[in-house]
User: Fold this.
Amino acid sequence: MKQSSKNRSKISEVVGLAPLAGFTESAFRRLARELGADFTWTELTSANFVLAKGEIGLPQFHVFEEERPLRFQLQGSETHLLVRAAERVLNLLKPEGLDLNAGCPARKVIKTGAGAALLTNLPLLAEIARELAAVAHTFGADFSVKFRLGFAEDELEKITETLLRAGVDILVLHPRTAREGFSGKARWERVRDLKNLVAEEARVYGSGDVKSLADIEKFFRETRADGVLIGRAALARPWIFAEWKGGQEIELGPQERLGLLKRLADYLSFYRREEETLKILKLWAGKFLKGLPGKRKLLPEALKARSLSQFWQILHQLVLSADAKYK
Assistant:
């Protein structure tokens, strides 16, 4: 492990793992916390799914103590279903926080009236937020809403007023509109504006285009936010949380990256069958080993592996080859 000599004094802002559909299940949340994330967030889960299949044994509801503090993210557009789902989650899993997704721009979510579509119906958003905040507080959890600047245009001030009146504890802003998706540049100045609007009424977290330790430090400097969520950057560089904790940039060698992948595999084995674990590790291998010499030649072979033992054998070859060139 190579580290820069840059040091940073300990400060109070928090850096956590953002919710990412298909990725932030228990195993990766556990790894992120181990590497220094201040909190983790579940991937978005529909209220309907919770009510139909909300059992602790399912992967979507598997939680280890090592992942905490944990925020559980719900999505939906029907108040009574969201309330029932929240009660179930809070009772069974006892997360430290409950979150409503009002920012997902995915078409399959939008067409149900959920996610960022809630930003087009502020009276409904207010009703849902008010009811969920009350439920969360009853169970001793805080309540947050993760949202965007607006659906088609920037309506931050109007949305903020709506959420504050509903009793939201944490406002989590991705400073793009839903129509923009992930295109263009995240407007961090709007996170700063949100912080000014909120004053002491709620905490403010932000996300968007935060890819390195330098970005984290710049984000806090420019926005004065209470926290930041790292999403896509954490998939290929989960040690970004360790960089934040230590105040130093870290360069992991091939063996250390493989070690992280094996740790992820260990955590998956607690609740996933071997064939499921193999399938998931194939998704992660290219991310954890990004940029290593020989990856283009050997990784495709690893992705064809039919067993975990074959998968690890090929990756060991890749890492040995990369190690020689890395040094």
Q: What stands out?
A: Confidence is low (pLDDT under 50) at residues 2-10. Residues 79 and 128 are 5 Å apart (CA to CA). The longest strand covers residues 142-148. The two ends are 12 Å apart (CA to CA).
